[in-house]
Amino acid sequence: MQETRLDTARIRAARRVIDPIFLDSPLYRCDALEPELGCAVSIKLETANPIRSFKARGTELVASQLAGNGSRAVVCASAGNLGQALAWSGRRRGLDVTVVASRFATAAKLDRIRALDAKLELVDGDHELARDRAADIARYDGIRLLEDSLDIETCEGAATIGLELVDNEPSFDTVLVALGGGAMATGIGHVLKAFAPDVEVICVQPLGAPAMTHSWRQRRVITTDSTNTIADGVAGRRPIPAVLDDLLLVADDAVLVQEASIITGMRMLLHHAGLVVEPSAALGIAAILEDRPRFAGRHILTIICGSNVDPDTYHHWVSS
Amino acid sequence: MQETRLDTARIRAARRVIDPIFLDSPLYRCDALEPELGCAVSIKLETANPIRSFKARGTELVASQLAGNGSRAVVCASAGNLGQALAWSGRRRGLDVTVVASRFATAAKLDRIRALDAKLELVDGDHELARDRAADIARYDGIRLLEDSLDIETCEGAATIGLELVDNEPSFDTVLVALGGGAMATGIGHVLKAFAPDVEVICVQPLGAPAMTHSWRQRRVITTDSTNTIADGVAGRRPIPAVLDDLLLVADDAVLVQEASIITGMRMLLHHAGLVVEPSAALGIAAILEDRPRFAGRHILTIICGSNVDPDTYHHWVSS
To answer: Tens of pLDDT along A236-256?
Structure first.
């Protein structure tokens, strides 16, 4: 197999750098979901930590590296979860963290970034504009730009989830991973292809933000002019070529799901599993809902990657 | 110190018997709760497992013992969580599990007990009547009666939570534990008093189900005629003398809280921590809310002991 940019030895080493609070997250069967879904369902729960998403696995690597080489500052663009994670990892290492986000980002995420003492700069546009602005700040201030999915630490941090999945002989047939920029999908995919090549890796993206899925299908970068999805954590328009190259090596499929399925997935996870999840974290359940025959009788694992929601909006989704 | 019925060596050994899926549950600071509570708050999350409560730590011990000595059947009374746990632990060991519950018990809990292949028998009365009925069944059928809090496995199973709390030098000053029959409080209290005697152990019970708290205060068993609380998991009326004796040795205080505080606690855990919890699991937060000056500036740990709720009822609580 052609090689991704990720390195298995570095991923193993990452476990010694990441605060244990983010490692060895719960992994268990959710029987109560199964009658409605028609397949066995296990979840890997990445929300039971201080920042309520998996993103700190990557920011711990970056922040510890920066602190180690005497850097004082770092900037990233974020839909909100990477920013929270970088703020958390940076604060405890004395780093000045700047997060650039869209002013349309989930308010609860922005509030938490501020509460974690990061400097928050809002742009009047979408996530891609925030990416441009973060790059400008890095250039102007001469500080490290952390680019989600492009920077290998974000992929290898996420890949430590993969190590935990293959720790024992995996009992699942398929892993459903939310697809946005691609850090989580390439990270987990890399490890699964290395240690459990028979496990199918399926990426799931909203129909309203399909750029990376279209790119994967056509094997070249496809951008879109806009996004339209409640799954704010995966709403990019400009896939990164190097990440697409990796994704082409590790993903077995990439599927698109409707907003209504995402909402049904969120509601099912609340009612049957007692889990609050943000829309991106329900993409896997949405994929099962939209193609039950494909998954019937199989054992599916999906990563519950985040739970940062605005209470009122969440309430509206799960009650609708 | 006078000794409880619990044995530290057995508690350590229990970790080798309990399915790892129930061990080493998440333990983390919840910054987002802190501004409103005025103290540092850490949580030990016992809901991220297949039965959504801590009770399987105890039932794993009982079921493995029964399977080991060739027993085929076991019966317990339960408000719902112990029954689910025993059904889960018994099913994978080929045991016939009977659960006796009040017909007024939380429907979601009863549904899960049935889904886990246990025989469910409902009594037309409260939990104490279910206890009597379970004892009758055990006597009549000649099978093992599992009695929550009285049977040492339920206390020592819960005590493994305590081991995880003292694993590193504890950074918290006080542990707030939900108090019902007393298994969790005596279990965790035993370990804390042994390994971290400076940590204060405070039991929290609803004003509407105060029997064990009154008993602790008066150092003798006090029963009540009825209970009136939404915290179904801790709504007993007849404390068990041997459990009270243990509780007198390990608890530094026992406090009672109002229903409104429990509901506010549930809502705060949902909105600020993204956690669905059942009323019993919000007792610790309720205790802080009712006496902020007592806890101001301290570091409090509370155990989120269960998340089994009826969706509609839960929705009503957190929206009210």
So the answer is: 999 999 999 999 999 999 999
Whether residue A51 contacts residue A88, with contact meaning beta carbons closer than 8 Å, is answered with yes
pTM of the entire predicted model: 0.97
Interface test with A, best of B18, B42, B51, B271 (most A CBs within 10 A): B271
* Strands A27-29 and A40-45, sheet pairing: antiparallel
Mind listing the pLDDT tens digit for each residue in B174-188?
Answer: 999 999 999 999 999
CA distance A282 to chain B (A): 15
Q: What number of other Cβ atoms are within 10 A of residue A40's Cβ?
A: 19
Q: Residues B188-210, buried b or exposed e (16+ Cβ, 10 A)?
A: bbbbbbbebeebbbbbbbbbbbb
- Residues in B closer than 8 angstroms to A308, CB to CB, are 274
Query: Is B26–A32 a contact, with Cβ atoms under 8 angstroms apart?
Result: no
Say yes or no: do domains B8-52+156-319 and B56-146 share a fold.
Answer: yes
* The listed CATH number (3.30.70.330, 1.10.443.10, 3.40.50.1100, 3.40.50.1220) that belongs to domain A8-53+155-319: 3.40.50.1100
The residues on B that touch A, with CB distances below 8 Å, are 21, 24-32, 45, 47-50, 52, 112, 115-116, 270-271, 274-276, 307-309, 311, 315, 319
**ipTM score:** 0.96
- Shortest distance between the Cα of B2 and any Cα of chain A, in A, equals 36
